[in-house]
Write a structure and sequence with these properties.
This protein is of the alpha/beta class. It is built from 15 helices and 19 strands. It has 2 domains: 110 residues, Urease, subunit C, domain 1, CATH 2.30.40; 290 residues, Metal-dependent hydrolases (TIM Barrel). The strands form 4 sheets. Strands 1, 2, 3, 4, 5, 16, 17, 18 and 19 form a 9-stranded mixed β-sheet that branches. It has a 4-stranded parallel β-sheet with strand order 6-7-8-10. A 4-stranded parallel β-sheet has the order 12-13-14-15. The chain is globular. The structure holds zinc ion (ZN).
């Protein structure tokens, strides 16, 4: 047997349907795919490269289901504010002044690098300048589902009859040979888009098999406004428009009631990307995770952008989510560690319609994985790897990252970008942002 890369002698947390944990095993990769998983010394092979994973666990690369990669340079710029003031007085004016393809490229290079250092192999993103995001993520080696936030309401005068989806079709063609890049369709939210635009999105998504990625019911105010304006709850409104007839990823989902959940469960093609830390910091509320689980609605996790989180650490997101919902429900058995880890792996892959390719370590799947070092004091002793991953681990224990079968980080060193250069850029843009508008 001849492989491109073999990770030798690790403990593999497969996240397969039986949740197998395989000790003293190897993973062999060829052409970006997992070709074999076998016990140490049970197979004779040649390989171009190898990684010694002894005293390590090997996990599926984490999947960040809601992000705004190019917001990096807004981190810590305006904190401790309500969402509407934060958006309207700080973020939107700065974006109007600064956003251009180069800014988006540089900022994405930074956040994509940061995500990889946090064990993330895939991001589901929403922003502007899709080419720049695709090129920056390709450079770093991060897999990304890209979407352009569609914003058109009375203020912009857009009537929603523009060529929605046309750009995605062009970009899918342009990047068809790049396995890291895919696209979704993203009306920003029901409050930032006209009814016409939302209807067009539903139509275009249905015709082209696009996933729709949107913000939904993040704040109580948003729900009240929808009820006032449309006499329907947000989910009922989406149903009327046809946006529940296509595969949907709904970011936040904090204020969704049981009747709405029944609609989502019945339709069965939507997932909720919960952004716990962003919701906590903006004081938006708590997503009803227990109810979602009871109703059988697929849930996963996103960091949101760093302007609201302010980190891109999905491990922390998972830990905070698990602990918060135990406390809220007065139930320490809620969201056990294994289930919490599924939120950032296999559940996320399902939300993207990629459960046959991503989200677990199995033969025939894409080789997106992280090697976690067990050398550190805080990782010992190890009884239960899920417990370690959810409650104990620090992202600095993510030692190596492999995405699409390629090593993109080795011993915490990124292989395709210069971290020092990224830091210099961050300071360059900081100076620009601090200039008066
Ligand atoms: Zn968002």
């Amino acid at each position: 047997m001849i492989f491109d890369l073999v990770l030798e002698n690790g403990t593999i947390i497969t996240m397969d349907s039986q949740n197998q944990i395989l000790e003293n095993h190897c993973i062999a990769i060829k052409d970006g795919m997992i070709q074999a998983i076998f016990p140490v010394d049970s197979l004779t092979y040649e390989t171009a490269e190898k990684i010694d994973a002894s005293n390590c666990i090997i996990i599926p690369g984490l999947i960040n289901m809601h992000s705004h990669l190019p917001m990096t340079y807004f981190r810590g710029l305006a904190d401790d504010l309500p969402l509407n003031i934060w958006l309207q007085q700080y973020i939107w004016p700065l974006e109007a002044k600064l956003i251009n393809p180069q800014f988006v490229y540089d900022a994405t290079l930074h956040s994509a690098a940061e995500m990889i250092k946090n064990g993330i192999s895939t991001a589901n993103d929403m922003y502007f300048c899709m080419n720049s995001i695709a090129d920056a993520c390709s450079k770093v080696g991060l897999r990304v589902f890209i979407s352009e936030a569609l914003i058109d309401n009375e203020q912009t005068g857009n009537d929603g009859t523009n060529a929605i989806g046309k750009r995605i079709i062009e970009l899918k063609e342009e990047y068809k040979d790049n396995p890291l890049i895919d696209f979704t369709l993203a009306p920003h939210s029901i409050y930032a888009c006209s009814e016409n635009t939302l209807k067009n999105c539903a139509k275009v998504a249905g015709e082209n098999d696009f996933i729709v990625h949107t913000h939904l019911s993040e704040t109580a105010e948003e729900v009240e406004n929808c009820l006032k304006e449309h006499k329907l709850s947000p989910v009922e409104y989406l149903q009327k428009i046809g946006l529940l007839d296509v595969q949907g990823i709904f970011a936040h989902g904090v204020w969704i009631n049981e009747k709405e959940m029944d609609i989502l469960a019945e339709k069965g093609n939507s997932s909720i990307a919960i952004c716990t830390e962003s919701n906590l910091k903006l004081s938006s509320g708590f997503a009803p995770i227990k109810k979602y689980q009871e109703k059988g609605i697929n849930i996963c996790l996103g960091t949101d952008g760093v302007a609201s989180n302010n980190n891109l650490d999905l491990l922390v997101e998972m830990s905070v989510t698990a602990k918060l919902h135990k406390a809220l429900n007065n139930d320490p058995t809620l969201l056990p560690a294994k289930d919490a880890f599924a939120l950032v792996t296999i559940n996320a892959a399902k939300a993207l319609g990629k459960e046959k390719e991503l989200g677990s370590l199995e033969i025939g799947k894409i080789a997106d994985l992280a090697v976690v070092s067990l050398q550190e004091l805080e990782n010992n002793p190890l009884y239960n790897p899920y417990s370690l991953l959810v409650y104990a681990i620090n992202h600095n224990s993510i030692r190596d990252m492999i995405i699409q079968g390629k090593i993109v980080m080795r011993n915490r060193q990124l292989l395709f970008v210069d971290e020092q250069h990224i830091l210099e850029k961050a300071n360059y843009y900081k100076k620009m942002i601090l200039k008066p508008l």
